[in-house]
Each structure stands twice: as structure tokens, then as C-alpha cells.
Specification:
The complex is a heterodimer.
Chain A (H helix, E strand, L loop, with lengths): L3 E4 L2 E4 L5 E7 L8 E6 L6 E5 L3 E2 L7 E6 L2 E6 L9 E6 L12 E5 L1
Parallel strand pairs in A: 2-10
Antiparallel strand pairs in A: 1-3, 3-8, 4-5, 4-9, 5-6, 7-8, 9-10
Chain B lengths: L2 E4 L3 E3 L5 E8 L7 E7 L5 E8 L4 E4 L8 E5 L4 E6 L8 E8 L8 E2 L3 E5 L2
Parallel strand pairs in B: 2-11
Antiparallel strand pairs in B: 1-3, 3-8, 4-5, 4-9, 5-6, 7-8, 9-10, 9-11
Classes of the chains: A mainly beta, B mainly beta.
């Protein structure tokens, strides 16, 4: 089973700043089958990025994903107030299970 | 519009059985996998298992194999997650979500069903 590690655990930033979130896999993720989700308190997760770098429908272009193999990054170019949330990465190339990372919380500095 | 609508919150006692549901609409229910994801209070997301309603092909995470049963009734576009004997540690939010037929992420999610198990 592929294990995902996310860093940092918490990222404290101000609106307008750039956020860089990391996701590292214990072994190579096949075909870049890596997704990122955003979850706000009391809400279901929402798909942001799939295939490591493709934005899901309706996702603003300030969100971008990159990486391959075992190292992946989610970048939010300029944080908007609604972007403060928890972000999870997930690999779905080696399934079951399609493991999730532990999450990175982006909170307001 | 794709929608996954889950059944309401449940409060149960240890040892009781439970079946929660997830009804899909706005797409071909038999052409996409449906998955279940657990989120314990204050914790992260855990992939439990998936089912393909078209032929009932079901796959479980080793962590949940034998602990829950996933099923689907394609005639009413509904997937289910059930327990035969609940434990306090089953207290969590449970989400259903849709996956594309080939390898893919969870692209649409239900609103979640909160299950509370307490004596």
C-alpha cells in the first residue's frame, strides 16, 4: 500500500500570499494518478486537481498542481479568504485502497 | 447535474446493525464506481471501498475488509454501506463519492452521513 506524507501539517499565511503544499509518496505513483482535495469545516471534500496537474471543473486558475513519481506539489498563487481550509492529496493509481495523505491545514496568519 | 444524496444522521448503540445509503442522480449510475470514505472526528479521510453498480464488482481497503459491507441496487440508483455490529469506534462521518470507470479521483461527493455509536 502506498503511504502519502503531506507537509507542512499547518501553513499560516495571509490573504494574497502564495501557498505551497507538498505531498510525498512511499513509492512511485503510477501515471501521475494523484489528486488534491479541499475540505472546509462542515463540508464534504471538493476535487481540485487530478492527474497531478489538471484542474477539475470550475476550479480557479490560482490553484495549480505539479510533480511526478513520488513528489507532488499544490500551489495556490494568491490566497483568497475562501481558500483557508484543509487540503488532502490522494493517489488512485494503486487501488485498493486509493490512499489519502493526512492533510495540510492552511490557516490565516 | 450530478448529485449524490446520502441518508440522514444516525445514533445507534454498540452491537446494533446499520445500513446507510447514497442515491445518485444526473448521470448513468451503472457506469461509474461509487466509493465510501470515513472521516473520524477531527481526523483525515480514509478510503474504505468501492463498488461498480453495473456488475456489483466490489473492492475493499484491507483496513475495512470484513468490517463493513458495500452493496448497490442499480434499479434505484442507490449504494449502501452497512455494519452488522457497530462499535463505538465506528463513530464518524461517512461520505460517498463517485469515481470514473477507469482509474480516477472522487469527482463528486455526497453531503455525508454522521454515524454516532454510543451506549
Amino acid at each position: 500500500e502506498i503511504v502519502l506524507t503531506q507537509s507542512p501539517g499547518t501553513l499560516s499565511l495571509s490573504p494574497g500570499e502564495r501557498a505551497t503544499l507538498s505531498c510525498r509518496a512511499s513509492q512511485s505513483v503510477s501515471s501521475s494518478y494523484l489528486a488534491w482535495y479541499q475540505q472546509k469545516p462542515g463540508q464534504a471534500p471538493r476535487l481540485l486537481i487530478y492527474g497531478a496537474s489538471s484542474r477539475a471543473t470550475g476550479i480557479p486558475d490560482r490553484f495549480s498542481g505539479s510533480g511526478s513519481g513520488t513528489d507532488f506539489t499544490l500551489t495556490i498563487s494568491r490566497l483568497e479568504p475562501e481558500d483557508f481550509a484543509v487540503y488532502y492529496c490522494q493517489q488512485y493509481g494503486s487501488s485498493p485502497p486509493g490512499t489519502f495523505g493526512p492533510g495540510t491545514k492552511v490557516d490565516i496568519k | 447535474e450530478v448529485q449524490l444524496v446520502q441518508s440522514g444522521a444516525e445514533v445507534k448503540k454498540p452491537g446494533e446493525s446499520l445500513k446507510i445509503s447514497c442515491k445518485g442522480s444526473g448521470y448513468s449510475f451503472t457506469s461509474y464506481w461509487i466509493g465510501w470514505v470515513r472521516q473520524m472526528p477531527g481526523k483525515g479521510l480514509e478510503w474504505m471501498g468501492i463498488i461498480y453498480p453495473g456488475d456489483s464488482d466490489t473492492r475493499y481497503s484491507p483496513s475495512f475488509q470484513g468490517q463493513v459491507t458495500i452493496s448497490a441496487d442499480k434499479s434505484i440508483s442507490t449504494a449502501y454501506l452497512q455494519w452488522s455490529s457497530l462499535k463505538a469506534s465506528d463513530t464518524a462521518m461517512y461520505y460517498c463519492a463517485r469515481l470514473p470507470p477507469a482509474a480516477g479521483p472522487f469527482d463528486y461527493w455526497g453531503q455525508g452521513t454522521l454515524v454516532t455509536v454510543s451506549s
